[in-house]
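Ticket #4471: structure output looks truncated?

Reporter: J.K.
Steps to reproduce: submitted the chain below (347 residues) through the standard prediction queue, then opened the result file.
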Amino acid sequence: MRLNSITFASSLRIMKPVHIQRNLAILSVVLFLGKMLAWYITHSVTVLTDALEGIVNMAAGFLGLYSIILSARPRDANHPYGHGKAEFLSSAVEGTLILVAGVVVVYEAIHHLIEPAELEKLDIGLVILAVAGTINYLAGRYAEKKGEQHSSLILVSAGKHLQTDAYSAVAILLGLTLIYFTQNKWPWLDSVVALCFAVIIILTGYRVLRKSISGIMDEMDLELLKRVIDLLQEKRRPQWVDLHNLRVIEQGNMLHVDAHMTLPWYHKVADADKEIHELEQMIKARFENHVELFVHIDGCKPYQCHLCSLENCPVRKEAFKGQLEWNMNNVWADSKHGKVTPDTVAQ
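Returned output as attached by the reporter:
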């Protein structure tokens, strides 16, 4: 029954991201067709590069949809930590596609710079691109906001990508507007605008690829780690003598938290189990993710007495001098605290 409840809750958590990503995928197809129509009308290499980038949007949209569904699947015998890294793989593919699109844009721009062609019906093309850029920006803002809300890397990446498209569209519109009002006196300007657009595409692809590789390599998310540490410090209990070797990894809709916690050595197993359960509920209450917690319990040592704020401890060897404040610098290391001089203890 508990497994079914978890599966049902997990399904509810991914319904919103799935619907958003599905709509983004459909939108990418519509915008791509619109941009191809604009290119067919204008024969502008800048518009063509924008349309080619739309192919990346379509591939990323449908791949992202598949990855969100896959990453939310419960863990099984072959994937004991779940399928959350599918999101990182999807983002890696998206980043690679964006980089490839940037290189294609550079090639086409240089080719048309050498052999410039006269552009046609720029007024119609400008209207189409302006509408597409506005839609991209609004959809990107919405996707990024919802991605942060639901802790979905795919939605955040897609949102930033769409907003970058919108910013690029502004540069494209400015360049094409200048060409339109100069009546094609500077046909090479089309290629120059396309090259500027290519730089933005390549930088975007690098950022997306860099973030996905960080996730695949289990690079520490410092912002997430700080949020967890701040929560533990805020809700800290006197019997939680020490915390170290803390590791926090977010994969898909799963938040993995590993830590070593020091409790009074005379606590029974039932007491320790209660503390772990309360710690887990505390983290779940703050984060929407499904939390998986692994805590190794250590018994306190005499040299930690000066850090322990537990009142009426029957085995205290030294007077309490001050708690060590848990922060980014001292909880990640695999080393117990307390083997320091009293004046190094945070007051």
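Triage note (M.O.): checked the attachment and the full token line is present. The longest strand covers residues 242-251.
Status: closed, working as intended.
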